[in-house]
User: Fold this.
Amino acid sequence: MPVNIAIDGPAGAGKSTVAKRIAEEFGYLYVDTGAMYRAMALFFLQKGIDGRDEAAIEAACREVSVSLEYRDGAQQVLLNGENVTDRIRTEEVSRMASVTSVYRAVREKLVQQQRELARRRDVVMDGRDIGTAVLPDATLKVYLTASSRVRALRRFKELKERGEEVNLEAIEEEIIRRDERDMNRALSPLKRANDAVLLDSSEMTLEEVLREMEELVEDAGSRGCCGC
Ligand code: DC
Assistant:
């Protein structure tokens, strides 16, 4: 049985940083499922589809393909065969991904691919619904969170370092709006699975979170699958 590690949590909690490091250290494949929703969102934006138009989105889902590739260990996202990894990190795509990930047609397409990957490989998969819906029998489930203020501050510093004009209040408001959408949608909303370990990183350094994660992964490895 492959090792499947599920890390869920809200935007900006540090999931991808932690998941990448754990994948590197333990030799697992890192699967960033958010990037798949982002690639779909980019496609809808390119086609000029309104995020509220479910029928148009459903139709567009039939003509889109999103796939993952790995280059020197780094995940690349392909949209209809084209590498869009560098184009899915804009605010516009973030918002569209949160809006369009509520639809069944979008989720079904991606969840199927995610399960297939985890069936064949040892993976660390991060997202919103990995422990609750995608991999309910994951070896280890972690819910990584932090207060909206702390997450906004982290993002603020990141953008400032890149020389961007930023406003902390506006960033926090956008984070809260995304949390609300992700947590309150009907299909696979973001929530902690009953058997997920809660890690609140609000008052922890990255190194502390990593140490805790390493211990959890080591314990899970020695326990075998789903605690059996
Ligand atoms: O993790 P991220 O910020 O790249 O995710 C972008 C959006 O995709 C997020 O707002 C909600 C959606 N998403 C989802 O619905 N399910 C996942 N497993 C991952 C992301």
Q: What stands out?
A: The chain has one domain: 4-222. Strands lie at 4-8, 29-32, 66-71, 74-79, 82-83, 123-127, 140-145, 197-200.
